[in-house]
Amino acid sequence: MTTLTLPSEDTFSPFAETIYKQKYAQPGEEWRDTARRVVETVMKPYFPELVEEMVEAVATRKFMPGGRYLYATGKRFHQTQNCLLLKVEDSRESIADLLQRVSSGLMTGAGIGIVWSALRPNGATVEGMGGTSTGPIAFMQMVNEVGRHIMQGGARRSAIWAGLHWNHPDVLDFIRLKDWSDDIKAAKEKDFNAHAPMDGTNISVILDDGFFAAYEDTTDPMHDWAQKVYWEVVEHMLTTAEPGFSVDVGENAGEHLRNACTEVTSSDDNDICNLGSINLARLHTKEEFARLVELGTAFLLAGTCYSLVPYERVAETRTKNRRLGLGLMGIYEWLVARGYRYEANEELANWLDIYARSTEIAARYAARLGISAPVKTRAIAPTGTIGILAETTTGIEPLFAVAFKRRYLKGKEWYYQYVVDATAKRLIEKYNLDPEQIETAYDLAKDPEARIAFQAWVQQWVDHGISSTLNLPAADQQEFTHQEFGEMLFHYLPKLRGVTAYPDGSRGGQPLTVVPFWEADGAEGIEYEEIGADSACVGGVCGV
User: In terms of DSSP H, where are the helices of 158-311?
Assistant: First the structure.
């Protein structure tokens, strides 16, 4: 058996230290203490012989458990798995039941993803009550407001996703849900907490095999509708950012339920996701990577036995499916360190072949425990705060920016810190690079096909989905036409499980704002409070 040889721990950057202490550290804990708390509690009852290796893997940030593991492990209500995947049927009983499940899920720390396609459209007859239906959008907005007022697990802003199929009669209204007025955008810029329609919910139009057939076949009765829906979404992706597309075709047909960030998929109501990521940027050999695939798979499988859930129906679905979301992070840093561009290459393909072994590994360990084998095992999550702790590029995404301001919620108030990206900092220091010459997502934004092609290529090894946001220039600075973008995207769509775009500045009060390196350099670790359009320093000495 190959075992891991790991370097000594290094220290967190100021911003990573802030996020760790604010969100995950229990009183008196340092990072190694957190690693031991999480790994021993989750794994020791099931795979005691793997505990010490896994503690070292987490302590050195080669494997990062999902944020719920870091936060909830060891607590009395230890729900360490993430988002609920839900659907609703066309009855008042089902809608009422859904709202109860949403509230229970959010209060216990789960994000929420809901497919609304079964509900009758706005204006349809409700025979029993003698009235007309409000349609699914009214209930989506209700859930959005539930999320606004319930702190997820009592500690963080709620994460919600809503999906509607392309052929639902209300889909055009759904597509236009986030066409915020200039006044609303200005209010968001002035106060990040300002209300806006569906501002706490990610939205996607769901595409299935029927969509692609109708889009291509001019004799199909739904051809014109499919074309109209597609190009309307493309228009919005390039201007207002949402909706995106969720794609469930071929062998994945019917798996249209998603978690809040859309990387975990299911066809079964009350499913739950279960996340942890291998940090490729800290690995040097395929043998080491293979060992981490084994350890990470075993850890997440143990988590399906350890974690509590919000209500019993979730446990029933989990027992049947036992979905794992073993992910990757640091892919872009891995590429840069080897002199590769952001594109497919043979060496990475060899590593991804190893990653795909998680299916057989999960089945072997499940048989040992006498439990059901996971139906799917790999999902690449956006790894937001976990990526900050790991200090590498998130998921499959390129370096977002060399320096930026990042807003975050602390209690009920919004704060921000300046951040010099840890990966960028290493490249600057190791190779004496000019910060302005480092390629970032903003550089690649001018060539969206490079991002989409790479995502489609990696998807071959991922049996769930990949959560990745396609950064684009602001709508008035895009050098490609909507027609060119839409034709390019359609070519890749059947190879994807989903796609989301974000044109710069398309949302007021966006959480990440790119700044010049010189503005952030020397200002890290200082916490500023968002007060209207201005900022004030919090915590004593500002230094700027």
Answer: 171-175, 182-190, 209-216, 223-237, 286-306
pLDDT band at 538 (very low <50, low <70, confident <90, very high): very low
Question: Strand, helix or coil at 72?
Answer: helix
pLDDT digits (tens, 9 = 90+) for 300-341: 999 999 999 999 999 999 999 999 999 999 998 899 888 888
Q: CA 291 to CA 42: how far, in whole Å? A: 19
Distance CA 139, CA 162 (A): 10
Question: Which of 401, 247, 434, 404 has its CA nearest to residue 332?
Answer: 401
Which one has a higher pLDDT value, 127 or 37?
37
Say whether 498 sits in a helix, a strand or coil: strand
DSSP code for 382: -
Does pTM top 0.85 for this prediction?
yes
Whether the Cβ atoms of residue 278 and residue 296 lie closer than 8 Å to each other? yes
Of 452, 443, 506, 426, whose CA–CA distance to 479 is shortest? 443
Average pLDDT over residues 246-261: 96
In angstroms, the CA 351 to CA 346 distance is 9
Structure tokens given for 203? 């939205």
Q: How many CB atoms lie within 10 A of CB 413?
A: 12
pLDDT at residue 32 tops 90: yes
- Quote the CA–CA distance of 354 and 286 in Å, as a whole number: 8
Q: Residue 263: phi, psi to the nearest 5?
A: -85, -20
For the chain, the average pLDDT equals: 89
Rounded Cα distance between 270 and 394, Å, is 27
Q: Round to whole Å and give the CA distance between 133 and 136.
A: 9
